Amino acid sequence: MLTLYGVHRSRASRPIWLCHEIGLDFTQVPVIQSYRLPDAQAPDAPFNTASPAFLKVNPSGQVPAMDDGGLVLTESLAICLHIARAHGGTLAPQGLAEAALAENWALFGATSLETPGIDILYTYADGLAETADGAARIAAGAAALARPMARIEAHLAGRDWLMGDRFTVADVMVAECLRYGSAHKPLMDAHPLTADWLARCQSRPAFQKMMTARLAEPA
User: Fold this and answer.
1) Which residue range is the domain that position 187 belongs to?
2) Chosen domain end from 71, 90, 109
3) Cβ–Cβ under 8 Å, residues 161 and 169
4) Cis link prior to 116 (omega < 30° from 0)?
């Protein structure tokens, strides 16, 4: 059985959502990030990314990680691509062209959306949006997202989903990368097709199942 390491409040949310979409049975090992603990090395510390047993799985000390029959992967989007190809049916790329497109969307999400989106999310989460420094961080994040958001917006004209005529792993990966930046409402208001697409993705029962579990975990 496929094993995923990581709590829901991590990038493990991506493959967990995908597994729920597929209806794939998996084992989740809830590894918490060591930076969230006062003393990750304490004898009573929960299983975390600095635990020696986890470092044998992923020496980089990051979650998620995956073990699928001895195949170990340690990057969330690579994990998603593997799960889709191995188990995903119509959520998987169909043929070489779609495989290339799915990989392209994964890299696009990771390189163009994630980092500025995280800056926006944490600025809001830390209650700094109304400060001068916070407003500057949000403005910088929104500026960095303007071009990739415009690309998604243009791509979605006349389409419901990113790849082909169906919901696929590409939608899972990009939606999760964009979720961070979507905290900034003016950015989403400026890209209505993208906002509608993200809402469709997040209204799916599998996403709701993942997010309910995520919200139930300690922040």
Assistant:
1) 93-204
2) 90
3) no
4) no
